Amino acid sequence: MTGRRISVSPLVAGLVASALALGVYWRTAYPGITWWDSSSYSTAAATLGVLSPPGSLLLTLLGWLVTRLPVAVAPARSLNLLAGLIAASALLVVFAIALRMARRVTRDRVSSGWLVMGTVLGALTFAFSATLWEHAIKFTPYGLSALFTGFMLYTLLRWWDAAERPDAWRWIGLYGLLLGLDFSVHRTNALLVPGALAWVLVRHPATMLRWRAWLGGAAGLFTGLSVHLLIIPIARTTQSPLNMFEPTTLAAFWDYVSLAGNGGNFLVDLWPRNSPFWSTQVADLARTFRADFANGSTTWHVVGWIPALLGIAGIAALWRNDRRLGSAFTLMLLLHGAATVTYFNIPEGYFRPFDRHYLPVFLTFAVAVAVGGGAMAGRVGRVAARGRLFPVPAVAAIIVAIAPIVQLTGNWVAHDASSRHFTGDYAANALEGLPPNAVYFTVGDNDTFPVMYAQSVDGVRPDVRIVNFSLANADWYVRQLQRRYPTIPLTPDPATRVSRNAAVWRDSSVTVLIRPPDAGASPVTGLPDSVVFRPRPSFGSTVLPADEVMLDIVRMNQFRDPVTLAATVGSGVLGWLQPAARRDGAFWRIVAGQAGPDSGILRANLLDRYEYRGLAGPSPLLDAVTRQIAYGYVAALRTLLEADEAAGDPVQCRADRDSFLRRVPLDRLSVPAGERREIELRCGS
Q: Which of 39, 76, 229, 592 has the fewest CB atoms within 10 Å distance of its CB?
């Protein structure tokens, strides 16, 4: 029988699968910025800025072009859609690689249509894996880095077929070019090099002795790396709030690319190990692998292991039908994973997961998954052509068909970010609640870059001067602050700043005069002529440059403009300012006179100005950072309720409490039960 033969165009199948993945990505994409890299990369792309090294210049340029398109889409949203397009393109490349390899497994024409269908379903399985999906719905460099992994693997496969030809060096040159360009993305694909060398040695060791191969690879690498030089003119001319380390000269550029400001030597730190190699570092890679390809914890239970089993089947099929290719691919995969674990050398209990850095390794394994899907489907096709579809071939066909469905349904809830407005709301709240012309101190990534995006891209509160305390330890950052905010009360010369403050740190006392008629003091207590502070270093006994900057701003400002600090700053940074710090919402304001709460300002911010979209109700999911940041609102609520109780107004107290809790349910923020009950029983009820 021949009625069961099917004919499928690989191009059509690949494009349909990519369109399906793209539709899912766009449906579940973040509506705006989110935490960590999303907000900083979005800010850099929208304003053509320079990020922390390695910088992801290529991604910044792509994003900058997208934000200039004449479409009625907010910049952050358009960048998130670009991330989906990049991830869908990675799927297409995985399909192209896997199909080329799977055809070595099944060569007969009878099963070619089945082979295409199985391979494309295997590629879709990767498209809906947890890590790729996570970076397909927000603007970060990790999806583009995975796409470059795919390009490199495809180049190596094409070289494999042409290895013995005189012009095979051209593929080596293309590989070098891609590797050089990837240094303008995230550099992670440098960890593929050991596997690529093994690939060459297994297929055609004589290539290592051919000068054209070495020259072509070096020329391609140099050409790709040279693109990174575009950072210099960008750093010289940008008006972006992001111009990290100011790489405006060749010397500064070298410091930038070698990560001199972060420790230097390209941060190669292989020994000693920062944590146990097997039980922590390899285990972390295995944990992420299970989440992506063997997620038995989903509602599908053991069926969640199907993607991993397809990958194993793909590697086995390669070994069975083309032992040299199978051994080269396996060796490359193992070396890629080993190089990744060895290079990143993660500490135990690191504050951020490293899932994003494993994505190139997972794309390599995804090729095996797609090959496995193609091999199984090809065998089904051969049996079906003889009219014997049941029972074993039918089971195999079902396994291949449901693999992407398992991934899609198992990961949907965790990756549906279409209603996650938390970060954008936090940034707008942080700025909108501040008094006019405020100096606003932040300390980390998540309380700085979202606010920076809201101000520089969305135009929220341009009068506010944002100062990141951590970055204020760098001279280049302080220079940028003075250029960006000419009115900031800060001594221009660092040496003068230090000498003026030397006596303050020695005597642990400074008297700040009060110039304006109203510096936030309570009308009841009145306004003193001056305020005495007792400065101390923020951490330990060493005075940091950032300590000098904060002291100088407070001292020179003399309460002319409001000095405020994000609620996220720790006790070390707030430190000596604590006695004069008043909580006015999701921030502290340094006031003259009594620093007791002002219920009017607190109520206006918490209940009128601030947005809390998505915090109430059962969905969307709240991540750990959102719960942590949002807890600052709860702390401000406690201060408001205390002020209401101190004023002897239980009715207002209950109204404030109930109004807030309707918008921000405490159980959604994982507030401990005892604290939750204490808040719910405040106000005499």
A: 229
